[in-house]
Amino acid sequence: NINVSSNIRTSRSLLHGVMYLPNSEIRLHVLCIHFSLFKTTRAGQFSILRARILETVGTTEPVIIAGDFN
């Protein structure tokens, strides 16, 4: 659970889970994020999401991104 809140009055998080597909060595990354209502804050949260994917997900591994994108 990664905190992506811009202030203490809001709760915004990024969750990242990894699972192996059945009968396979393929890892499936599932990310869920709750973006802010405000455009400038969302841009920063998108950068955090992008950085997380670039740092932790292989270039050939599948990713599902879900959440509240406002």
List strands and helices in order, with pairings.
Blueprint: E1 2-3, E2 13-20, E3 27-34, H1 39-56, E4 63-68
Parallel strand pairs: 3-4
Antiparallel strand pairs: 1-2, 2-3
Provide a compact summary of the structure.
With 70 residues, the protein is α+β, with helices and mostly antiparallel strands. It is built from one helix and four strands, in the order βββαβ. Strands 1-2-3-4 form a four-stranded mixed β-sheet, with no helix packed on it.
What does this structure look like?
This protein has 70 residues and is α+β, with helices and mostly antiparallel strands. It contains one helix and four strands. It has one helix spanning 39-56, and strands at 2-3, 13-20, 27-34, 63-68. The chain has a four-stranded mixed beta sheet with strand order 1-2-3-4, with no helix packed on it. The two termini are 20 Å apart.
Supply the key terms.
70 residues; alpha+beta; four-stranded mixed beta sheet; 26% helix
- What low-confidence regions span 5 or more consecutive residues with pLDDT below 50? none
| Alpha-beta classification | alpha+beta
DSSP helical segment count: 1
User: Helical amount among residues, as a percent range?
Assistant: 25-40%
Strand order of the largest sheet: 1-2-3-4
- What is the strand content? 25-35%
Shape: elongated
How far apart lie the N and C ends? 20 Å
Radius of gyration: 13 Å
